[in-house]
Amino acid sequence: MATTAQLFEEPFDADEYIERLAWRTPGGGSKGGAEAFDPKKLLEEFVNHIEELKQLDERIQRKVEKLEQQCHREAKEFAHKVQDLQRSNQVAFQHFQELDEHISYVATKVCHLGDQLEGVNTPRQRAVEAQRLMTYFNEFLDGELRSDVFNNPDKIKEAADIIQKLHLIAQELPFDRFSDVKAKIASKYHDLERQLIQEFTAAQRRGEIGRMREVAAVLLHFKVCWEIHVFWYIAILCQRVNKQVGEVFCSPETVMAKLIQSIFENKIQAHVKEKLEETRHSDVEQYLKNLYDLYSRTTALAAKLTDFNLGSDKHTFLSKLIKNIFSCYLESYIDMERQYLQNRSGLILQRYYDSKNHQKRAVGTGSIQELKERIRQRTNLPLGPSIDTHGETFLSQEVVVNLLQETRHAFERCNKLSDPADLPKNAFSIFLLLVEYLCVDHIDYALEIGLSAIPSADGKNANLYFLDVVQQANTIFHLFDKQFNDNLMPLISSSPKLTECLHKKKEVIEQMEVKLDTGIDRTLNCMVGQMKHILVTEQKKTDFKPEDENNVMIHEKILKQVERVRRSMDGKNVDTVLTELGVRFHRLIHEHLQQFSYSSMGGMLAICDVAEYRRSAKDFRVPLVLQLFDTLHALCNLLVVAPDNLKQVCSGEQLTNLDKNLLHAFVQLRVDYRSARLGRHFS
């Protein structure tokens, strides 16, 4: 029988090897056979075979020595290479420091040069501006305005800036020498002022707020008084007339009251009616804006008019005038506000879903849906087939901002236009619409879709899509809560409606938190299910031979999952979710390890694996999770420790407080449990 290294591959049995050698030797069989048993031949065969084994051993030993020499030689070469690289790195680092110092030096020079250029450029710009003004001044001096800026209506803003500066310069010039040019500049000054006032008035009539703001910014630089708005004009008119009335009439308060009453019942009422009636039935949004604006301006005017002597009860007098003008509009205000908010909110949502080419799924109601919800909360099982959302959360911050903005405007109008006794009730009705369209129709719907998209926990891939839903939902909750505190609370804080609002808010948030918790729990199941799939497909129960790639794969998955959780959660929720994930990860590894039997080598491999898992546990940055894996690592030491040292290891710091049955269960996984009678240590 040829003697080669292949004969000694595992599993090797010495008795079987000798027996096969004896049988193949002529006359070596124990029962004779074709030839009688010949001990001399058998001895000779054994001696020869032993000699062959010695030769084989020498060959293997020479090969081992050769490989060791080669290994030492390559190690030295590698060490030299590392030293060369370190020297190169040191040189590169020195070059980098020199370059950094040079860059800092150049940057300092550039900053200094920039300061010098700025110091030169500022006087230069002033000189250029002075030259430009002198050129325009010469045109007025010659009596012919040739520049395009004074003849082009589109450049009226630039012309106003120039004429305002020239007007200031002209005031400093002596009258006798420059009277003509001063008159021309003043004439152009007033001409441009008049054009700007006309432009402002036209923009106000068209409702172009942006254009009005631009023109007003230019007009502020002109000193003369300008009246362009009916309410502001009325205040100025009353201020002018008040002094004359006091000098002429013996009962000036009665005359002023009659004047103001006439202004309210004629001018203001006609103006209000014209502005509101033209939009009341055609454009509800503009109608509500106009009503809020006109009512605000009227009340502001009334506040200014209280400075005049209008009799002993002037506040009641002015309130009645305002009520006579706006009562017919305020009676139906809240109904129109709610109707507009319903239509506008529904339109915002519908446009969003249309942009996603999404047809909203009907969310079931009634006893069947309630039963499904209870089953899902208690069992955490997916009810119905999983749907593919292609990564779309169906939550939009743009939609949320639009809904909150519309509601904020509604709260502002409600505060101004509602009767004080009806204000809490009206504000609560607006809040209910916000809950309906934002919380129920948008957020809750997205949560239902998100729950339906979570696959079962036995899948190969962990679908972390629901964490995106959680992240966006948290952001929306913060915006919702901010509007509740900033816009709603001041309107209801001193009324019984406060309790109803707080209860409704708590109820809505708790319902959503239940669905969020359910989705997070099922997502964690998917994460653990993916790791379980890796372990089950990579390791066999017959022997413990884990592959390094398996450990790396799990470590990468855990790292990605932990980072995803950190991005999706905030505050204490991060530690809560990571703790739950870490506990489930530990339970999976613990149960997986108990499926195998361990030799000493297998125990060492298990310890190495758990050390890798413990490294993954550090990414959680949760003390409990790291403690669990430290304990599991200590338990794995029971698989390799010498039988006589079992009691000492079990009484160690990390294992002394554990249940004896748990320790015994780990010791039972050893292949020498029965032969070494290890159970006696736990009896």
Structural notes for this entry:
Belongs to the SEC10 family. The chain has 683 residues and is an all-alpha fold. The protein has helices at 14-24, 39-142, 156-171, 175-206, 209-219, 230-248, 252-277, 284-305, 314-330, 333-355, 367-379, 397-417, 423-453, 465-492, 497-538, 548-568, 572-593, 600-618, 623-636, 646-650, 660-667. It is elongated, with a radius of gyration of 45 Å. The model is unreliable at 223-228 and 365-371 (pLDDT under 50).
| Secondary-structure element pattern, one letter each | HHHHHHHHHHHHHHHHHHHHH
**Distance between the ends:** 51 Å
Rg result: 45 Å
Helix content: over 70%
Low-confidence stretches are 223-228, 365-371
Amount of beta strand: under 5%
The number of helical runs is 21
Report the biggest beta sheet as strand number plus sense, adding barrel if it closes.
none
Count of DSSP E strands?
Answer: 0
Shape summary: elongated
Label the structural class. Answer: mainly alpha
Tell me, rounded to a whole number, the average pLDDT. Answer: 81
